[in-house]
Amino acid sequence: MSVFIGIEDLAANALILLFKRKGINFVSFEELTKYGSKVVEILNQKGEKATLIYSKDITNALERNYSNYFETFIREQKQYIKLKDSVTVEDVIKKYRSYLSIDMLFAYTCRESIEVLGA
Amino acid sequence: MNKKHFKDPIYGYVEIELDIVSKVIDTNVFQRLRNIRQTSYAPLYSAALHNRFIHSIGVYHLGQIVSSKLCHSISSSILESESKQTISKTFELACLLHDVGHSPFSHSGENFYLTYGDLYSELKSAVKDEAYSKTVDSRLADKKVANPHEIMSVIVAINNFGEVIKQDNFDFFARCITGYTYDGDTSEEKIKNCFISMLNSDIIDVDKLDYLIRDSYVTGYDNVIIDYKRLLNSIMISSDDKFQLMYHKNALSVIENVVYARDAEKKWIQNHPSVLYEIFLVQHAIKRINNEYEEDGRHLFCYDALTEDGISFSDSSKKVCLLSDDDITTISKNDISDDLIKEFYARNIRRHPIWKSEAEYQSLFRRTLGEELLDKLELDMDALVKFIEDSQCELPVINDDTLTFFENRMKQLQDSNEIEENIKNENIEGIEGNLKWFYILKEYANKNNIEFDFVIIMADIFRSGFTKKALEEILIYFPEFNKVNYLRDVTSLFQLKETRDNYFYIFYRRKNTNCDFVCNKCKNDCHIDVASFTKYIRDHIE
Questions:
Q1: C-alpha span between B466 and A18 (Å, rounded)
Q2: ipTM
């Protein structure tokens, strides 16, 4: 079965790890790219076909502050995505983690993925 | 040169060179668009049956007007006549072919194109241009890639009509369709960027113009009239070294009308619960079909399926070529029918929205809950919809089967050795948070003697096009005093506040599908009472 992973899914799961482990509430797009590639690699190993979706409409919406959970900023010419102050990690888990199959949850949270994030 | 005349109800006669007709339009790859419906509005407007074929002809026609006006405004000292001609013809071809790779049923299936190999590599291979490849990589890094159907349209067009487009023009052609502007500083690149923005922009381009005008005309929906001739005849490229696209001040009223028209279509048609539910049903059918037609990494939604050769699977009955709406309906009716797919074909068994517009929703919830509780409710519903739709359960419906599916998943998670204990516990808490609403709705159904069967769909809160930055930054030229201003500086339109992000509909099954009465006149107690239901929801938020 095909699984689509958007930038919000990646950001959410990366930020849950970073926040819980290091108290960090932002991550760069560059780090997300590496994290996404690792998640897809692990899912493919488990026989799940996963595809990353980097839609301009979603990214533009993030930049215009239209997301309930995330916002973007630029620092030293690098683009970052961060959790909004009004959102709790539990809210993010409820939306972006609770639906995951065990294989997907493993891909997002296993040691290899955590290492890629530096979490 | 000899031309063929296509009669169009909106533009009259659209003239197209015979060469393009025979080498592009008459081919099966382009003719496929006759069987791709343009909109999902048919549940609301029965005549909304126009297709992407006639839309593409319409966009081509408007593209011809644009290229003529823009070329006219470029001095031959800046660009030679031959270069202008090449840019013009390539742009017009891009207008004609901008949807040639479109998936069936509007945009519902296009993400599945991304599961076909590496679409971005295919795009770079087709265009074969180093600068374009760098742009593709840069957009990937910024997470701002073109829509999958745009990418597929470039690939299909170049692979099938490369000789007509010509290799030297592949880069510009691809940029017109994907919207990837040039980053360079040359006058030619800046001029080309003006053309690109007239096919792919946030506010005004020939694609949007045609569908706004055509959707209104065909459906019978009385929308604002757009004087496209006045609008397109007023565009020009500035004569300074910035080479920016701008509009003569005569276009001001039409620019506003375009936004009003777009707002009306978005608010009253695209966001109508009947249309949203139709899209929900189609997306479900397409998802099921794509999962069914998947073998060794090959999917139905791929380049091969759009061509005459098509795609075959080991089950010899599963072969599809020139993929169109008909294939989706045939497969879904005959091979993979389920509860939701049956609903697509029978209106009398469709679920009904409890409230029927954003205005009703606001009246029922915003005025009674206050911002904080409304925030919580909407976040809960947003999470719940994703929970159900992305979880791989069989049907994205809140009912006993889905409840059992999630209760089993919770158990599997509890028993799993692969996941760290604290992550397991966090996830179980998240699942329970979403299942809370299953239990609330189940209790309501039991108490009110209706079926425990609900569908929730999120809808975007309406945001006017007048809030878009791209609109504010349209340049208006005042010839009387030779001045150019941003639109925002010459109109009082941009005073609107930001609003919330989204809201939701809940659909349910009426007890008596033959009931003719609207909710408050029904004597047989087969409708949910809107006021009591929403009070019930409000009472259970915390």
A1: 38
A2: 0.89
